[in-house]
Structures are given as C-alpha cells and as structure tokens.
Amino acid sequence: MDYANRKRPAKRTPPKKPNKKAARKPAVSWWVVLLAVALVAAFVWLLVSIAGKSEQAPAQTTPVEVPQAQPQPVAEPLPEKPEERWQYIEELENQEVIVDVPEREVGPPKLMQCGSFRNISDAEEMRAMIAMIGLEAQIRTTDGSNGVWHRVILGPYEGRRAAETDRHKLQRANIRGCQIWNWN
C-alpha cells in the first residue's frame, strides 16, 4: 500500500440528537406497572390469609362422635427366643490366630553419600553440618582418572529403610541431594 499517495479520511459527522418524541415515551409501559402492583397485592393478601389460620381456633365447634374402641381379642404371648445355631462368637473369642510372615530378604548393606568435593575443607564443612544434626559422617578420599575427590558418606546401614530415615532427617535440616547406594 502506498502511504504517501493515500487520500485523507472523510470527516466524521457528529452523532444525531435523539428525537423529542422518543424522549417523551416512558421507559416502562403502564401495563407493566399495573401488573407489578397486582402481583404485590395478591402476595400481601396471601400472606394475610395464611398468617391468621395458624393462631386462630376453629370458629365452629361441632361435636364429633368418636367411635368406641372395640375390645381386641387377647393375643397369644410371644414364643420363646429360639436358640442360636451359630456359635462362632464363643469359638472365635478363645482362638488364637497364627499368621505366617515370611522373613524379609536382607540385601547388601547400604551407604548414603551426601556430597563429593574437590577441596577437603568443603567436605569437612558438610561433615560438621551433618554432625550438628546428630549423625556421624565419614570422609573418604578417592583418586580417580579425573582427580582427587573427597566423598562425605554415612553408614553402613542394615537396610534401605534405616538409610531413608536418616535421609529424611537431613532433608528437614535442608541438606538435600543425599543418595543411597549399596556398600562397596
């Protein structure tokens, strides 16, 4: 589109004023108002008619004949309670339940590594933080192909559950990233 040779937009005309005849018409017609007044009057009449009925006694009291109760024949007495055929309640009270629980297989002992550092001072700092929680950590130095590493480990643990318990203690103290491995 060529903006340089573009024509100017046409002038806008002001909006037209409303017609005087339209302004004379009421917003609500007379029959809507009449209908609303009739509904309100009917509702008031209904409330007034209901309100008096619950408090007033009946205006006319006419004697009503009550039929005489006829003597009922004497019923036979109830039969005796039958004897229970099931005696499992007494039998179960005196029984002992024996459950065969298989022993859990104990896997290899576990260790938990909470950090691996290049500097021994960083490893000592992590070990001190763990000691403040109440757990005992060790520092193992390993020399690998990519240099010397100082690992902070906890354990050995008999099973994974004991290691998880200590890991949750560490997480509550904001020490995260500890991993549980098999003991080497």
What does it look like?
It is a single chain. This protein is α+β, with helices and mostly antiparallel strands and 184 residues long. The chain has a domain at 114-182: Sporulation related repeat (Alpha-Beta Plaits), CATH 3.30.70.1070. A hairpin with a 2-residue loop joins strand 2 and strand 3. The model has no long low-confidence stretch (mean pLDDT 84). The chain has a four-stranded antiparallel beta sheet with strand order 2-3-1-4, with helices on one face. The protein is 35% helix and 16% strand.
Quickly list its features.
single chain; alpha+beta; four-stranded antiparallel β-sheet; transmembrane; transmembrane helix
User: What overall geometry do the principal axes of the alpha carbons give?
Assistant: flat
The rounded Rg comes to 48 Å
Distance between the termini: 77 Å
For CATH, the homologous superfamily of the domain at 114-182 is named as: Sporulation related repeat
* Spatial order of strands in the largest sheet: 2-3-1-4
- Secondary-structure-derived class: alpha+beta
> What is the count of DSSP helices, taking H or I runs of 4+ residues?
5
Please name the CATH architecture of the domain at 114-182. Answer: 2-Layer Sandwich
Query: Which stretches are poorly predicted, pLDDT < 50 over at least 5 residues?
Result: none
CATH class of the domain at 114-182: Alpha Beta
**Estimated share of beta-strand residues:** 15-25%
Instruction: Return the string of H and E elements.
Output: HHHEHEEHE
